[in-house]
Amino acid sequence: PRSTMDHQPKFFENLSGTGKAIGVLTSGGDAQGMNAAVRAVVRMGIYVKAKVYFVYEGYQGMVDGGDNIVEVSWESVSSILQVGGTVIGSARCKSFRTREGRLQAAYNLVQRGITNLCVIGGDGSLTGANLFREEWSGLLEELAQKGNIDEDAVKKYAYLNIVGMVGSIDNDFCGTDMTIGTDSALHRIIEVVDAIMTTAQSHQRTFVLEVMGRHCGYLALVSALACGADWVFIPEYPPEEGWEDSMCIKLSENRARKKRLNIIIVAEGAIDCHNKPITSEKVKDLVVQRLGFDTRVTILGHVQRGGTPSAFDRILVSKSKAITPRCKYNLIIFWGMRYNQLGFFKTQEVQKAMDEGRFLEAVRLRGRSFENNLNTYKLLSHKRPDTELPKTNFNVAVLNVGAPAAGMNAAVRAAVRVGITEGHKMFAVIDGFEGFARGKIKEISWGDVGGWTGQGGSILGTKRTLPAKYLEKIADQMRTNNINALMVIGGFEAYLGLLELSAAREKYDEFCVPMVMVPATVSNNVPGSDFSIGADTALNTITDTCDRIKQSASGTKRRVFIIETMGGYCGYLANMGALAAGADAAYIFEEQFDIRELQANVEHLTEKMKTSIQRGLVLRNENCNENYTTDFIYQLYSEEGKGVFDCRKNVLGHMQQGGAPSPFDRNFGTKISAKAMQWISKKLKETYRKGKVFANTDDSVCLLGMRRRNLVFQPVAELKTETDFV
């Protein structure tokens, strides 16, 4: 059936006595998304016909037993998806560090037939899980010798399988690119930074922000990249000798360019190259003493752990395949964005490298994603002196095409700054192809794009107009301004525009230049890319709105909400929004449905409303069906649910395109645009002959897309064959 995890099919009703038992616990520091992970494990466990148990208060509850280990049902995890922290509690447990404590924990599990554990926690929690698994056979034998269990139990429960789901806002577990809670923590940090920037600008202040990360600088680094911070201190990459002078010069130069504020981000574990701590107070005192700037310190602290989980964190854990099979051996798997069993060893190696002063090695061990973030930040945050920049004499134009999408401005900023670093002269085109035809083009400098990262919409202006009817005028403008390359940031219209410009090369030599497209649309419907800039922000808007709408029904009579999302013919927003918000159904164009399915969903909601659950949620993509409109579904549900529940409808509309970009969209837009500009530089060198750029091959007009976590350049001519234009 078309069902999300809030829709329990009828065959789940009698699943007891199947022999499988799963225990789920959260341990160590809490992280947003842990409840979503607990919910996913419980419902997937029930789906595979297993008994599922809550282990309250982490390992302490496992040791204490009794009411701390409780069997749960499908309904036990209703309405926890959007709740921060962990509803089953988390506690530090000294007794589990002793063999006696682990012996008692093993006894409590065997008493309930639990031989599968899902441990949601950080490095310490998963280290404990690994030790428990290694000792399992010996613990059972010791229990048998003491007469606590019989030999049959030793044989029956001989194998313990564990899945470790990494829940840590620090993102300090090597082998997975993103841990549970990290994206939500970035949301909290960026919300604070955006708020601070307005007051800092008013008073021309410098703010030093301290974020969590005792041993890992991920939060500090990515938040610095997302807000365009002037300086960042992280433990893996300490500043060089004399950093005090370099930082003060940088801050002074920014003020000289009429920038009214400075943002410095410090990880709580930041150190210098001699392994001595760099504190936020030390940085503040330095700025005040040397520059006399009005400087304030803000320590974010546990704010970063609080609040509701982001859409990314909810989806990350809801899609997990965390339920362990019944195996004939002791098994432990660490689950993250990548399966990797080397996590513990790599994490220890990173700390060892930092302790020994091998900081470049520490950065490498953190993984490719961390290394790319650091390199991109260094590239965009510090402008090299003009005397050190290469002189290429190439002019590159950047324009936005299609509907606005949050993150477009971050992409433009990255393109401009990388282009200038590469030695190009950068031009900004106002109002898309239509503005291009009208000559609305101007040179843009490094300082012109300062502060753009956190701005929503499109500062350059964008229109859906395609270039076909303006080809001659656009060619004239390219000739007049000597444009040698084009970067187009936009949605499906941008893709169509590049196809039209490519087709016009036979008639206009001006279009025989390298051209690249960076996908940016809330609909996420651009061929050749799994993700588009703006889709994550829109998804968070939908998720937040659904949370508020569901909350509005608390304490009222039973109510079902029908929510219409954007997306055109692409069901990404409706489908992922339903997963993140815990909806009962999602209607999308890609998965056709009929009146019988609508009726089945109404019947499901009617049954559901007869329990303690008082609200339902249905998401509908705006173009999922021309006849089964939002009004039709609303009227159907209202009529069929009469006497059981009433119905409300909400069309979210253009609020999905507005607002400040999410951390993901800021960073994705920044990194993908930087890579696109580096590709342009490479193509310009390859196609420059006899004082002129001439590129007319298919591979000189490309779309840069995210394919299975890799950024791939794909000729638009090749993508044309796999595109459903209708």
Automatic annotation (TrEMBL):
Its cofactor is Mg(2+). The keyword Cytoplasm applies. Keywords: Allosteric enzyme, ATP-binding, Cytoplasm, Glycolysis, Kinase, Magnesium, Metal-binding, Nucleotide-binding, Transferase. GO terms for molecular function: 6-phosphofructokinase activity; AMP binding; ATP binding; fructose-6-phosphate binding; identical protein binding; metal ion binding; monosaccharide binding. SUPFAM superfamilies: Phosphofructokinase (SSF53784). One of its GO terms (cellular component) is membrane. Pathway: Carbohydrate degradation; glycolysis; D-glyceraldehyde 3-phosphate and glycerone phosphate from D-glucose: step 3/4. It catalyses: beta-D-fructose 6-phosphate + ATP = beta-D-fructose 1,6-bisphosphate + ADP + H(+). Residues 22-319, 395-680 form the Phosphofructokinase domain. GO terms for biological process: canonical glycolysis; fructose 1,6-bisphosphate metabolic process; fructose 6-phosphate metabolic process. InterPro entries: 6-Pfructokinase_euk, ATP_PFK, Phosphofructokinase_CS, Phosphofructokinase_dom, PKF_sf. Pfam families: PFK. This is 6-phosphofructokinase type C. The lineage of its organism: Eukaryota, Metazoa, Chordata, Craniata, Vertebrata.
